[in-house]
């Protein structure tokens, strides 16, 4: 379902394009971030009521969304993304309610959800406050300061740590931080395609140059560490 109104588009085709969607799907289907999907699912299992309603805000092609739905068959799961190609890819999985829309204007009723999941996606207090039940949970996944250090060393002459302090400013006083954890996932990418897919699914792809391409072309494998910070907020 496409509910993205024309006046809410900032470009003709907002969000991830098909190339980025395909890169991310190939990479994730190889199981490189399976540990994150498992961790997120376990949090939802432990923290949510029976038969919960869960919204994946900025779901992309639906990797984490489908992982949640498969592991929690009693849950009703919704996936929303501003990218039409992403939702087209996700919609092959029929058990989830998919929607093309902006997470700043979600087309859901008030107090519709027991939980909102946001993995590397936009977080906004007002719409989250509107659609999340009182006492509901927000699970926010963001990069920790040393996320993908080896990949960034290839792309940038000077690598700066991610600014993790901003994560706690995404949600206002209507949401209370109840816990945060760090998850490290070792990556051993076996070939050049996996390296290209990892780069292609990140914002770093926009910073590539001829020099970066030369360094990438010289790689046949890559060892790196994905470092995530997982925050849980209570509404």
UniProtKB/TrEMBL annotation:
InterPro entries: Methyltransf_25 (IPR041698), rRNA_m1G-MeTrfase_A_prd (IPR016718), SAM-dependent_MTases_sf (IPR029063). S-adenosyl-L-methionine binds at residues 33, 61-62, 147. This is rRNA (Guanine-N(1)-)-methyltransferase. It comes from Reinekea blandensis MED297. It comes from the Bacteria. One of its GO terms (molecular function) is methyltransferase activity. Gene3D superfamilies: Vaccinia Virus protein VP39. Keywords: Methyltransferase, S-adenosyl-L-methionine, Transferase.
